[in-house]
Design a protein that fits this description.
30% strand; two-stranded parallel sheet; alpha+beta; 178 residues
Length: 178
Protein backbone atom coordinates (compact mmCIF):
# COMPACT_ATOMS: atom_id res chain seq x y z
CA UNK A 1 0.00 0.00 0.00
CA UNK A 2 1.54 3.33 -1.00
CA UNK A 3 1.42 6.17 1.51
CA UNK A 4 -0.39 6.44 4.81
CA UNK A 5 -4.14 6.09 5.28
CA UNK A 6 -5.25 9.58 6.29
CA UNK A 7 -8.10 8.37 8.50
CA UNK A 8 -5.60 6.69 10.84
CA UNK A 9 -3.74 9.94 11.59
CA UNK A 10 -4.51 11.79 14.81
CA UNK A 11 -2.92 14.27 17.17
CA UNK A 12 -1.64 13.00 20.54
CA UNK A 13 0.11 14.74 23.42
CA UNK A 14 2.51 13.80 26.20
CA UNK A 15 3.35 16.15 29.07
CA UNK A 16 7.12 16.17 29.60
CA UNK A 17 8.77 16.07 33.01
CA UNK A 18 12.06 17.70 33.96
CA UNK A 19 14.92 15.18 33.85
CA UNK A 20 12.87 12.39 32.20
CA UNK A 21 14.00 11.46 28.69
CA UNK A 22 11.81 8.43 27.81
CA UNK A 23 8.00 8.24 27.65
CA UNK A 24 5.56 5.45 26.82
CA UNK A 25 3.07 6.09 24.05
CA UNK A 26 -0.05 4.10 23.04
CA UNK A 27 0.66 0.64 21.65
CA UNK A 28 -1.46 1.16 18.52
CA UNK A 29 0.96 3.87 17.34
CA UNK A 30 2.58 2.64 14.12
CA UNK A 31 4.69 5.70 13.41
CA UNK A 32 5.16 9.32 14.39
CA UNK A 33 4.76 11.52 11.35
CA UNK A 34 5.81 14.83 12.92
CA UNK A 35 6.04 16.42 16.32
CA UNK A 36 6.37 19.72 18.10
CA UNK A 37 6.80 20.91 21.65
CA UNK A 38 4.42 23.46 23.11
CA UNK A 39 6.24 25.35 25.80
CA UNK A 40 4.06 28.31 26.71
CA UNK A 41 0.35 28.86 27.06
CA UNK A 42 0.31 32.67 26.81
CA UNK A 43 1.12 33.22 24.04
CA UNK A 44 0.96 29.65 22.73
CA UNK A 45 4.39 28.81 21.33
CA UNK A 46 5.28 25.65 19.44
CA UNK A 47 8.68 24.43 18.27
CA UNK A 48 9.21 21.60 15.78
CA UNK A 49 11.36 18.70 17.03
CA UNK A 50 13.35 16.51 14.67
CA UNK A 51 13.14 12.71 14.54
CA UNK A 52 16.37 10.74 14.78
CA UNK A 53 17.07 7.03 14.40
CA UNK A 54 18.43 4.50 16.85
CA UNK A 55 22.00 4.93 15.60
CA UNK A 56 21.86 8.72 15.83
CA UNK A 57 20.55 8.46 19.39
CA UNK A 58 23.20 5.89 20.29
CA UNK A 59 25.90 8.26 18.98
CA UNK A 60 24.98 10.99 21.49
CA UNK A 61 27.76 10.84 24.09
CA UNK A 62 25.96 12.46 27.04
CA UNK A 63 22.29 11.53 26.91
CA UNK A 64 21.52 13.25 30.25
CA UNK A 65 22.15 16.85 29.12
CA UNK A 66 19.11 18.94 29.97
CA UNK A 67 17.69 21.76 27.90
CA UNK A 68 14.95 22.42 25.38
CA UNK A 69 14.35 19.08 23.61
CA UNK A 70 15.13 19.37 19.91
CA UNK A 71 15.20 15.72 18.79
CA UNK A 72 13.29 12.54 19.52
CA UNK A 73 13.79 8.85 18.85
CA UNK A 74 10.68 6.72 18.36
CA UNK A 75 11.40 3.13 19.38
CA UNK A 76 8.88 0.83 17.67
CA UNK A 77 8.91 -2.00 20.19
CA UNK A 78 5.80 -3.85 21.41
CA UNK A 79 5.26 -1.11 24.00
CA UNK A 80 6.54 1.88 21.97
CA UNK A 81 8.49 4.72 23.53
CA UNK A 82 9.71 8.14 22.54
CA UNK A 83 13.04 9.39 23.91
CA UNK A 84 14.10 13.04 23.85
CA UNK A 85 17.42 14.76 23.51
CA UNK A 86 18.01 17.17 25.11
CA UNK A 87 16.30 15.87 28.24
CA UNK A 88 13.56 18.34 29.26
CA UNK A 89 14.76 20.96 31.73
CA UNK A 90 12.66 22.99 34.16
CA UNK A 91 12.67 26.25 32.18
CA UNK A 92 9.11 25.72 30.84
CA UNK A 93 6.19 23.36 31.11
CA UNK A 94 6.72 21.26 27.98
CA UNK A 95 4.11 19.19 26.16
CA UNK A 96 5.07 17.02 23.18
CA UNK A 97 2.38 16.98 20.50
CA UNK A 98 2.72 14.52 17.69
CA UNK A 99 0.78 13.39 14.66
CA UNK A 100 0.80 9.64 14.61
CA UNK A 101 -0.41 6.94 12.27
CA UNK A 102 -2.25 4.41 14.35
CA UNK A 103 -3.19 0.86 13.56
CA UNK A 104 -6.59 0.42 11.92
CA UNK A 105 -9.19 -0.85 14.36
CA UNK A 106 -9.71 -4.49 13.41
CA UNK A 107 -11.73 -5.71 16.38
CA UNK A 108 -14.83 -7.80 15.79
CA UNK A 109 -17.45 -6.06 13.71
CA UNK A 110 -20.80 -6.96 15.26
CA UNK A 111 -24.45 -6.01 14.72
CA UNK A 112 -24.06 -4.55 11.25
CA UNK A 113 -21.34 -2.07 12.15
CA UNK A 114 -19.09 -0.88 9.36
CA UNK A 115 -15.38 -1.47 9.27
CA UNK A 116 -13.25 1.52 10.20
CA UNK A 117 -12.89 2.63 6.61
CA UNK A 118 -13.80 5.84 4.78
CA UNK A 119 -16.43 5.66 2.09
CA UNK A 120 -13.87 6.15 -0.71
CA UNK A 121 -12.32 2.75 0.14
CA UNK A 122 -15.51 0.62 0.10
CA UNK A 123 -15.19 -0.19 -3.61
CA UNK A 124 -11.54 -1.22 -3.17
CA UNK A 125 -12.37 -3.55 -0.27
CA UNK A 126 -15.30 -5.06 -2.18
CA UNK A 127 -13.14 -5.63 -5.26
CA UNK A 128 -10.44 -7.24 -3.10
CA UNK A 129 -13.00 -9.59 -1.55
CA UNK A 130 -14.34 -10.48 -5.01
CA UNK A 131 -10.81 -11.28 -6.14
CA UNK A 132 -10.23 -13.54 -3.12
CA UNK A 133 -13.52 -15.36 -3.63
CA UNK A 134 -12.84 -15.79 -7.36
CA UNK A 135 -9.67 -17.71 -6.47
CA UNK A 136 -11.80 -20.30 -4.71
CA UNK A 137 -15.14 -20.32 -6.55
CA UNK A 138 -14.35 -19.03 -10.07
CA UNK A 139 -10.60 -19.45 -10.80
CA UNK A 140 -11.20 -18.56 -14.45
CA UNK A 141 -12.27 -15.05 -13.31
CA UNK A 142 -9.36 -14.46 -10.93
CA UNK A 143 -7.30 -12.35 -13.35
CA UNK A 144 -10.28 -10.16 -14.26
CA UNK A 145 -11.09 -9.62 -10.56
CA UNK A 146 -7.41 -8.83 -9.88
CA UNK A 147 -7.54 -6.07 -12.51
CA UNK A 148 -10.75 -4.74 -10.91
CA UNK A 149 -9.10 -4.83 -7.48
CA UNK A 150 -5.95 -3.05 -8.66
CA UNK A 151 -7.95 -0.32 -10.40
CA UNK A 152 -10.26 0.25 -7.42
CA UNK A 153 -7.32 0.34 -5.02
CA UNK A 154 -5.42 2.80 -7.23
CA UNK A 155 -8.40 5.17 -7.32
CA UNK A 156 -8.90 5.02 -3.54
CA UNK A 157 -5.21 5.35 -2.68
CA UNK A 158 -4.76 8.28 -5.07
CA UNK A 159 -7.67 10.07 -3.42
CA UNK A 160 -6.26 9.44 0.07
CA UNK A 161 -3.65 12.20 -0.02
CA UNK A 162 -3.18 15.68 1.35
CA UNK A 163 -3.27 18.23 -1.43
CA UNK A 164 -0.60 20.62 -0.17
CA UNK A 165 2.68 21.86 -1.64
CA UNK A 166 5.91 20.16 -0.63
CA UNK A 167 8.80 22.29 0.60
CA UNK A 168 12.22 20.79 1.24
CA UNK A 169 14.54 22.66 3.59
CA UNK A 170 17.69 21.28 5.18
CA UNK A 171 17.28 20.99 8.95
CA UNK A 172 20.75 21.97 10.12
CA UNK A 173 19.58 23.55 13.39
CA UNK A 174 19.13 20.13 15.01
CA UNK A 175 22.64 19.13 13.95
CA UNK A 176 24.28 21.86 16.04
CA UNK A 177 22.26 21.15 19.24
CA UNK A 178 24.37 18.19 20.31
Amino acid sequence: MPGQNLWTIDLQSVPLVQGVAQYSIPGETRMILSGFIRYSNTPQLDRYVYPIGRDEYASISNKTNQGFPSQYWFDRVISPTVTFFLVPDGAFNYTFYYYRARQVQDAQVLNGQNMELPYRFFDAITADLAHRLARIYRPQLEMARRQDRDEAWSIAATDDTEWVPLYLTPGLAGYWDR
